[in-house]
Amino acid sequence: MASHVVSAMAVTPSGPKRNLHCWSELPLDLMRLVFERLGFADFERAKSICPSWRSASRQSKPNNQIPWMFLIPKDKKLRSPVQS
Fold first, then answer.
1. Structural domain includes residue 47
2. DSSP labels for 6-52?
3. Distance (Å, whole) CA 56 – CA 27
4. pLDDT tens, position by position, 13-65
5. What is the pTM of this model?
6. Is position 14 within any domain?
7. What is the residue range of 31's domain?
8. What total of structural domains would you count in the chain?
């Protein structure tokens, strides 16, 4: 499936001007909605983007998905996640 990225652009007399809006200026409500849909690892990475994203992450409820690396088998023996 192809993914398309749309960038905001404006044309000025001197040529194209890119990025009319900065990612750090996204509305807080929108950032909260995004954070609430992220898995554990993506949530942790996204909150390190910039101070405003970190602030939004603090105001978001993390996804209730339990990270697979924290699941313990019934026999309670810890195993490496790369073991077969």
1. yes
2. ---EEEETTEEEE-SS-GGGS-HHHHHHHHHT--HHHHHHHTTS-HH
3. 10
4. 555 555 555 777 888 888 888 888 888 888 888 888 888 888 888 888 777 66
5. 0.49
6. no
7. 26-67
8. 1
